[in-house]
Amino acid sequence: MNAMPVLIVAFAGDMHAAAVAELLKRRNVPVEWIDTADLNKSLRLNCSLNGVAAATLNLAGGRRVSLADFGTIWWRRPRRPVSESTVDDTTREFLRSEWEHFLGGLESFTEARWVNSPGASYLANRKALQLVTANMVGLRVPRTAITNDPDAVHALVDEGVPLIYKRLGAT
Questions:
Q1: Alpha carbon of residue 121 to chain centroid
Q2: What per-residue string of b and e applies to 44-68 under the rule 16 or more CB within 10 Å gives b?
Q3: Which residues pair with 55 in a beta bridge?
Q4: Sheet architecture: strand order including 6-9
Q5: Pairwise CA distance, residues 47 & 63, whole Å
Q6: Rg of the chain on CA atoms, in Å
Q7: Distance of CA 114 to the CA centre of its chain
Q8: Residue-wise pLDDT tens digits, 138-165
Q9: What is the pLDDT of residue 25?
Q10: For residues 116 and 74, is the Cβ–Cβ distance under 8 A?
Q11: Closest alpha carbon to 103 in 45, 142, 64
Q12: Which of 24, 61, 106, 146 lies in the 20 to 30 Å Cα band around 113?
C-alpha cells in the first residue's frame, strides 16, 4: 500500500518539523514542505471554486501540486507572508488581514486530514478564550487580568497579588 503524501506547512528552520519529515521519509511517506512566508516570493497558492473546491500550489521551479494529492496537511506554526518593506503601514495592515483570511480559509478547499487546522489553530491561540473555556469546564485557572489599563495593574500590585506577564499572542 502506498502512503498518501504529507504536506508540512512550517517555517523553513523548524527543527521539529524537520525531524518529523525525516522520519516520514524513512517510512517511505512522500513529504512536501512549504513555508508560507514564501507566498510573496517563490510560492504561489491558488484556490478556486467552480462546482468543486480546489487548491493548488505552484512551487519554486515551476512544479505544481494539488492539495487534493495530500492525505494529511500538518499546519505547524506557519508564518505570515512577508510584505514588501516599501509599503506604508495602512497597506501592510491590509495585506496582513487579507493573508490571515486567505490562509484561514484554506482548509475549506481540500478534504485532506488536517493536523492543527487553521481554524483550530486560530482558536487555540486565543488565550482569553482558552482561559474562559477552561474555567467553564471546571479546570483551575489562576486569577487573571487581561488589560491595557495601568491603574488596574497597580490595583493588583496594591492588593499584593503576585503578577506574571504572559503574551497574548503565540509564543
A1: 6
A2: ebeeeeeeeeebbbeeeeeeebebe
A3: 47
A4: 31-34, 6-9, 72-75, 113-115
A5: 16
A6: 20
A7: 12
A8: 999 998 888 888 899 899 899 998 888 8
A9: 96
A10: yes
A11: 45
A12: 61
Averaged pLDDT score across all residues of the chain: 88
pLDDT, tens digit (0-9, with 9 covering 90-100), for 30-75 = 999 998 888 878 888 899 998 999 999 998 888 899 999 999 999 9
Which pLDDT belongs to residue 67? Answer: 92
Per the rule left: phi > 0, alpha: psi between -120 and 50, beta: everything else, 51 is left
Query: Which triple of cell numbers denotes residue 148?
Result: 491595557
pLDDT of residue 138: 96
CA dist 165 → 130, 139, 147, 153 (Å): 16, 21, 11, 11
Res 171 pLDDT > 80:
no
What sign has the CA pseudo-torsion 144, 146, 152, 153? Answer: positive
